[in-house]
Amino acid sequence: MGEPAPAPGEPYPKLKAHDLTRVFGRTPHTVDALGPLDLSVAPGEFVCLVGPSGCGKSTLLRIAAGLLRPSTGTLEIRTSLRPDMRLRRVARPAAMIFQDYGIYDWKTVRANVRFGLDIQRVPRRSANARADEWLARMGLSDFAHAYPATLSGGMRQRVAIARALAVEPELLLMDEPFAALDAQLRTILQDELLDLTQTTRTTTLFITHSLEEAIVLGDRVLVMSARPGRIIAEHHPPFPRPRTGDIRATPAFTSLKSELWDLLRKEAAPA
Which Gene Ontology MF annotations are present (predicted)? Predict the structure, then answer.
C-alpha cells in the first residue's frame, strides 16, 4: 500500500519517520540508541529537537542525512521537482551543518560555499555566481578568497550555512551548530538564522541543547526521552511569524522555557 494521503488542505510531509530505531553493537553487547520513533515535518517547517545527552538526537539527523541506516523502521524525504528550482535534484536531498563547521581548511571561503554545487556538476560560472550570492547574504563577500583558519568561529559557521543553502536543499539538518560559540555570538547567529529561514522557508530539523534557541527558532519544539530516544512531548511556541529575538523578553517565552526544562530535568536525571 502507498503512503496515505493527507487531510484536505494539508501538504505531504517533507520528512516522515515511522517506527524508526537504531541499535549499535552486536549481541550481546548492543546499545539501543534511538526509538521506536515517529516524526513528521511539513514543508517549510522549522522543527527543533531537544533532549538529554546521548538520547539519539544526532543519530536521527545522521539517518536523515543518509550517513547511517536505521536498524528498523523507515525515514523518507519527499523531494519536489518544481520547475522554478535553479539547480537539479540530487540523490540525497538533505544538507547537514555540524557543530564543528565541517568546512575544508584548504579551500577558500568561496570554494567551500561552492563545494556542493561542484559535486552537482553545476557549470563553474553559475556555481560562482550562486556562491557569491550566498556570501553576500551571509555578510562574507569581503572574505571570499580567505581561508577558514583566518576566520572567527561565527564566520566559519556562516560559511557552513551558506554552503548548505547554496544547493537549495529539500531539507536542512543542523546538529547543534552554535554550541561551540560564546553566548553573545550565539544569540547573534540565532537571530540571523531566524531571519534567513523565515525568508527562504527551508524545511529545517534542528538539534540543540539550548531551550532558548529552540523556542526562538522553532515552529515546533519536540522533547526527546533519555536513551533510547523517543518523542515524549510537542510544543508550539506561541509567537507568530515573522518573529524576532525580542520574544526572549516576553512572559510567554519564560513560561514555555520553564515548562520545557521541567520535562527535560526528569529525563536528564536517569541519563
Answer: ATP binding; ATP hydrolysis activity; glycosyltransferase activity
